[in-house]
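Problem 12. The chain below contains 194 residues. Write out its predicted structure in token notation.
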Amino acid sequence: HATIPNAAIEYDDQGNCVVTTTQDVPAGSPLTISLGDPTNPTPLFAKYGFLYDINECTSIFCKAMHLQKEIETLGYDFQQLLFYTQTGDIAPAVWDLFLYNLLQNDPQEMQAFFYACTLNDEATKQAYHQHYFPYTLEALKQYVNGMLQEIDTLTRKANSYNVLTHPRVPIIVAHNNLVADTFLKVKAQLDAMG
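Solution.
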């Protein structure tokens, strides 16, 4: 894996693997491909079982898998649903997702907000966000606090294993620590909002 790979892999119509270099590669040098975005390590960790340099990580997926149906309905991608590791900032799509979920009790409002999201009608979206801000804020606070408890439980469980028989424990704990640190920064941002 490399952030800037020097090779690309493609498959032809017969299923043959074709590897081409994307830059000059000196003889004897390894060919590298990108397995994913190192600025958001969770997918790399989940799919391939490793973390890239955590210091290069600028964001993580907000982990709102309980809202997967809503994510798909809104047409959002996990790469839009981010918490930023350095600041605790929350991507706008996360706010949209939590508000959309809150509007389930009012199908008419939910539908109108859905159209605003899918049509990129920022003025209408902002009006909804202003009107429902205290409720969305509370929903996000509850979610983040719950996730912090879950992360702590999972980290304690991982730390209870013997590293000699479970050599992946350090990488699991490193990932959990990155997520916990980010969620704590998000919590600070949310608490400052009210």
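Discussion. The two ends are 43 Å apart (CA to CA). Students who got a different answer should revisit the alignment rule from Section 12.3.
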